[in-house]
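Review box. Two proteins, two foldings.
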Amino acid sequence: MSTPRTVFDASGLPTVVFGKRSLLWWGTVGFMVIEGFTLLLMVASYFYLRTNEFDWPPGRTPNPDLLIPTINTILLVLVIVPMWYAGKAAKRMDRMAVARGLLIATAMTIPVNVLRWWELLAINARWDAHAYASVAWGVVVLHSTLIIVDVFETGTLGVLFWMGKARRKHYPDAADAADYQVFLSLVWVPLYFIVYWMPRLL
């Protein structure tokens, strides 16, 4: 005698979901947790190394310059605006609005990546000069790897939507990319203050 099987009809379930109902959303959140913890470890290293130094920056190392890092931080925070717009448009399934938001955000993030080199130079010490320089460079470089990858991801999504090749399943991707951009931009703000302002205060 065969055992009766329970059959569930999934035909009525939505094929596209956003937020907590999406497996990709949970993956994005997990990615942010991992990246956030890695950055937190870099910050912990920064303050630990500070306890071993009498001067910070040590020796005759000048304090970091503020102009380029401040401009770049403002630009990075402003990128949230078009990404927020793209995220809202994604939930309305508005293809062209999503494309505009993603491509504008990409165009704004490219100069952020370029200016990152001058942000590193603004530390006013080679990465291998001493522990202070190494950990300051480490914080900036680690965050830079994230925005370099992000500009390619956002740009690729933007082109897909602009060319009409995006499918329904890509709309949650755009919404998740908007959430990730908020994390990426806002997490830099305390890092900016730690790397470029803290030497003046510690």
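Next protein.
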Amino acid sequence: MNLPVKLNKQRQIASIVFAEGHDFSFLEKWKKQLDKDTLPARVDSVAFAHLAHSRYLSHSHEGTPYVTGTEEFKAYINDNPKKEVGCLVLLTCNWFPDSDVLGLCHFRRSWCNHIVLDYLRAHPFITAPTKNCRNIVNGVGLAMLFYVTEIARQCKSKLIWGEATQNSHKFYKKVFKLPSVKDLIYVPQAKFGRFYDRIKKGWNDEENQKRSAIIEEINEIEVEHPPFLGTKANVFIPPRKSIQHLLELPRHEKLQVARVLKVYAKIKPDMTDTEVAKLIIQEATEMNDLDKLWGEVEKHSKRNVG
């Protein structure tokens, strides 16, 4: 799906794509671009994007299906009306100099056909532009939320819900016209349906070179109250298969994994294989490198099986 956003107040088109295993190289680029920047909003953008990826890897390994297209939602529901389905989408473009990926959104369909928002993040310099930033992008959060409501409409969901942050709750209250939003976002079908219609009309007006007050208003709200979601307290079980595979690797391959993750220097000669594995997991967790860890482990594990 193609969706409009703004680059320096000029209309541009970005595209929603369904993330798959090979689509996450942008995370390292975000991390390098952040460098030693310590602004919480930018740091959180990178950290929560990594957490969304880790969750994707964890649930994928544990058997939760992740769809690769809108038609798959319908197929799963038709096959099993109570099927839980995951989704991680990227908002991409070819015109933002800092990254081809503007943002990402991790959401899922619950067994009772509600849509649950887990993570919604944007590039760190979109979330909080630097003082001398030459490329100001607006509407990333709006575009991804619009897509989520499109999925909710197609699935005939009765509710979209998620956990708001101290910075985003006012956005959801105003945009969905809710009576109150604290830490819980609770958007019934009627509310997100009207939101969808308003935004679609506003974008159509802009496409026809008419001024859209609703889009301008929401872009202003997004600047003041970014709609980005995610919480580090949202703990999930790491992929048990990958942990088992790490434990089963020969010691010399565990050490190769440690070298890739740059934790080899912390391994002592008298450590047992289990202690080495535990140290690798602890260090990867602290450095937000769990996705890289599981990727390396599965790479070695497949070689051994082959």
